[in-house]
């Protein structure tokens, strides 16, 4: 095989065989295929796409490029959850204790934040003492005994995806559905789970800006899961504004605690209960979604869910006092109120701009090697549909930096205010199973 022939084949819109895809993925991972040829191939995929079989084969080849996790020592049906990325998305912190409460083993491997999207591992590390690196024995024991564990992803998991994604990021080929789908699903398949629930975000803070695009991505990933023997459900949820009211690591932990205490915002509570309920059905705890949803809600109302979060923090070495006193979490020195210059209804909020503002304040990373400030972030005071008067606070910036002016400007401009009240937001757009 020659790489140039395969580039030309895809450029003509022809389907590649499993062997041809494996030649490309493994060759590039080993350094046998140069960046310039892989860039040309990725651009050909961007314009010509891939069919269902090609996308599944691309996913499997990336899985086979490195280690895979063996969860056979964990009892029961292992269910994992993945979000396609958003702003203020602290759903993993909520669904893990909820699923553990009903006996669903959640052996979760999560990532760190990069750019305008946050990472679950960073959020958990804002809790004093919380360990996101466990030995294999600790990980398996915690899931078997307590039905939950959250750790960072192994560096040897899907090295092809890491290398290909880095190239996509600098060649304008990130927003390709086959490439997004195979990237996400390769990590989930390699993580060893039996079933997968995908939280596919749509809106200004997500990769997919329209519901139609998000549905195509969701269907593609469900098809990959089916082709590779994993029961998969995709839930398309809204990211036209930050989820909940808090953005930033310690801020989002605090808000996750409030959700599990029954005091969470309607949007994030609805999304969390929806995701957790589908996980519970796939894991065999309930026969139908309605029963699961009602039971999950009662777990929050009874206080059992927040106690399970406290248990998760304890078994991974964290300070459980933060559950009863969230003010023990890191707090910034500066709190800047961003004011409205006009009166009217909030018609839209650019979630990506809010996420970038939080990053500029210290809550995120421009590059993967940047350090973050756990206390930095943004509190949303007003959201879509709210009325504001001139001079009302739109959001509050939290930072330890003195140069916050760019974040202040960007976050203020993220709010679009008009005289007419917008239609209510649909938190869950559809479910693909």
From TrEMBL:
Reaction catalysis annotation: uridine + phosphate = alpha-D-ribose 1-phosphate + uracil; 2'-deoxyuridine + phosphate = 2-deoxy-alpha-D-ribose 1-phosphate + uracil; thymidine + phosphate = 2-deoxy-alpha-D-ribose 1-phosphate + thymine
Chain ranges of the Pyrimidine nucleoside phosphorylase C-terminal domain: 345-418
Keywords: Glycosyltransferase, Transferase
SUPFAM superfamilies on file: Nucleoside phosphorylase/phosphoribosyltransferase catalytic domain (SSF52418), Nucleoside phosphorylase/phosphoribosyltransferase N-terminal domain (SSF47648), Pyrimidine nucleoside phosphorylase C-terminal domain (SSF54680)
One Pfam match: Glycos_transf_3
GO annotation, cellular component aspect: cytosol
Classification via SMART domains: PYNP_C
UniProt-recorded Gene Ontology molecular function terms: 1,4-alpha-oligoglucan phosphorylase activity; deoxyuridine phosphorylase activity; thymidine phosphorylase activity; uridine phosphorylase activity
Uppermost EC category: transferase
GO biological process, one term: pyrimidine nucleobase metabolic process
InterPro entries linked: Glycosyl_Trfase_fam3, Glycosyl_Trfase_fam3_N_dom, Glycosyl_Trfase_fam3_N_dom_sf, Nuc_phospho_transferase, PYNP-like_C_sf, PYNP_C, Pyrmidine_PPas_bac/euk, Pyrmidine_PPase_CS
EC number: 2.4.2.2
Record's subunit section: Homodimer.
Family, per entry: Belongs to the thymidine/pyrimidine-nucleoside phosphorylase family.
Function per UniProt: Catalyzes phosphorolysis of the pyrimidine nucleosides uridine, thymidine and 2'-deoxyuridine with the formation of the corresponding pyrimidine base and ribose-1-phosphate.
Protein name: Pyrimidine-nucleoside phosphorylase
């Amino acid at each position: 095989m020659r790489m140039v022939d395969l580039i030309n084949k895809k450029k003509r819109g022809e389907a590649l065989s499993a062997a041809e895809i494996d030649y490309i993925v493994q060759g590039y991972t080993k350094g046998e295929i140069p960046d310039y040829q892989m860039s040309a191939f990725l651009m050909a995929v961007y314009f010509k796409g891939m069919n269902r079989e090609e996308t599944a084969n691309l996913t499997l080849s990336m899985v086979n490029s490195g280690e895979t996790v063996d969860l056979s020592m964990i009892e029961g049906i292992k269910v994992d959850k993945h979000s396609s990325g958003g702003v203020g998305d602290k759903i993993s912190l909520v669904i893990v204790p909820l699923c553990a409460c009903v006996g669903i083993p959640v052996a979760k491997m999560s990532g760190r934040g990069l750019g305008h999207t946050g990472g679950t591992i960073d959020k958990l590390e804002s809790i004093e003492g919380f360990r996101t690196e466990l030995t294999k024995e600790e990980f398996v024991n915690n899931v078997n005994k307590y039905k939950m564990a959250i750790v960072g992803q192994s560096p040897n998991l899907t090295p092809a995806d890491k290398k290909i994604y880095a190239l996509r990021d600098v060649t304008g080929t990130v927003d390709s559905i086959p490439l997004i789908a195979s990237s996400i699903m390769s990590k989930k398949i390699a993580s060893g789970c039996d079933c997968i629930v995908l939280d596919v975000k749509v809106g200004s803070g997500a990769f997919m800006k329209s519901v139609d695009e998000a549905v195509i991505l969701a269907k593609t990933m469900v098809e990959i899961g089916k082709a590779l023997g994993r029961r998969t459900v995709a839930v398309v949820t809204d990211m036209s504004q930050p989820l909940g009211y808090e953005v930033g690591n310690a801020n989002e932990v605090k808000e996750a605690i409030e959700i599990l205490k029954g005091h969470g915002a309607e949007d994030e509570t609805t999304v969390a209960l929806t995701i957790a309920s589908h996980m519970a059905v796939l894991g065999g705890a309930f026969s139908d979604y309605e029963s699961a949803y009602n039971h999950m809600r009662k777990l929050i109302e009874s206080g059992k869910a927040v106690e399970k979060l406290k248990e998760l923090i304890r078994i991974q070495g964290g300070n459980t006092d933060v559950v009863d006193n969230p003010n023990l979490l890191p707090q910034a020195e500066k709190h800047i109120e961003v004011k409205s210059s006009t009166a009217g209804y909030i018609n839209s909020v650019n979630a990506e701009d809010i996420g970038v503002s939080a990053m500029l304040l210290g809550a995120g990373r421009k590059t993967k090697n940047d350090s973050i400030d756990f206390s930095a972030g943004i509190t949303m005071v007003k959201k879509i549909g709210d009325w504001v008067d001139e001079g009302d606070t739109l959001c509050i910036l939290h930072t330890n930096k003195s140069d916050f002016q760019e974040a202040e400007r960007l976050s203020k401009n993220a709010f679009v205010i008009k005289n007419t009240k917008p239609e209510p937001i649909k938190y869950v757009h559809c479910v693909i199973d």
